[in-house]
Automatic annotation (TrEMBL):
Taxonomic lineage of the native organism: Bacteria, Bacillati, Bacillota, Bacilli, Bacillales
Protein's UniProt name: Spo0E family sporulation regulatory protein-aspartic acid phosphatase
Length: 64
């Protein structure tokens, strides 16, 4: 499964769990933390594809 697909599966599980058990249930928090970890992994993998000189947003020295 592609990382972004796994992220979407986790998101759906979190939403359904929150609807069934409430937003403050520990399982919802578990899914939320797992989503954060997977999202960070996805961002890290994208950084490899877009090194700093090719990033979409300018750094502070490039802002006029």
């Amino acid at each position: 499964m592609v990382r972004s697909e796994y992220l979407e599966v986790l998101r759906e599980k979190m939403i359904m769990t929150a609807k069934d058990l409430g937003m403050s249930h520990p399982l919802v928090l578990k899914y939320s933390k797992e989503i954060d970890k997977e999202h960070n992994k996805l961002l890290d993998s994208l950084k490899k594809d877009f090194p700093p000189e090719k990033q979409f947003y300018p750094n502070k020295s490039q802002i006029v």
